[in-house]
Amino acid sequence: MIYLLGTTALIIYFILMFRKRVWLKLIAFRYGKYSYNYVKQFKNYANKSPFPYCFKDDIMPYLRLSMVKRDQAHHFESEKTLLFEDIPYNASLREIVKKYGKPDCFNAFKIKDYELYAYGYNKSVFNTPMKVVFFFIFESFVMGEYLIDDLQRVNIQELSKLFLLELGVISKNESLHYFIDGKNGTSVHFYENGFTAMVRYTNQTNDSVKELVT
Q1: In the chain, what are the domain boundaries?
Q2: Are 177 and 191 spatial neighbours (Cβ–Cβ below 8 Å)?
């Protein structure tokens, strides 16, 4: 009996000592590490994310950027369906993670009744290092971005021309802020602010994305 009580007390002691780790393990077991619940609880304990951030901007202004800036930009049209990394919209999280592997950065958000996840990978595109970020709503791919965090070593004009050609646009316009509207409601927003650049691919027909930003 004494042995049993001692063992029980020891177990309780270790649970209390390591309760945060135990609780995180339980959350990870139920929801997975790459989940809003896990990230939220980890932040509550450590005051930081368990993963490198893909971006640190306040998410709502960041998501609304394409809506706010649309009237201020140049506009082009393309005969192509504009797909991010040639991956169709609504592809599953499982498919993309299987292809790209463990993400180099990760963000998780709860907005209204939606869980939004950003899985980012470090990659070279047109011989330029950048982040390739996939956005998911409830494990369905809804948006993609190429992010360049430092423009000092990048010829952004040349990079813009390469994107335009790939997306089926022939233009002598050297604007670094424009939208390209393609087939099937697909759209690309190219934007730079002198320090960073973003190339955002969206499906304008996706109702979930519309609800997030309105």
Answers
A1: 2-46, 59-213
A2: yes
pLDDT digits (tens, 9 = 90+) for 94-143: 999 999 999 999 999 998 888 999 999 999 999 999 999 999 998 899 99
Among candidate residues 77, 59, 46, the one with its CA nearest the CA of residue 143: 59
Where is 99: in which H helix or E strand?
Answer: helix 93-100
- Helix or strand run (H / E) with residue 22: helix 19-31
Give the three-state DSSP class for 184: helix
Question: Does residue 162 carry a pLDDT above 60?
Answer: yes
pTM over cut 0.85: yes
Residue 147 · residue 84 · CB < 8 Å: no
Distance of CA 105 to the CA centre of its chain: 9
Write the pLDDT tens digit of every residue in 52-96. 999 876 888 999 999 888 899 999 999 999 999 999 999 999 999
E strands within the chain?
74-77, 105-111, 114-125, 128-137, 140-148, 177-181, 186-192, 197-203
Q: Which of 211, 185, 210 is nearest to 88 (CA)?
A: 185
| Gap between the Cα atoms of 45 and 24, Å rounded | 10
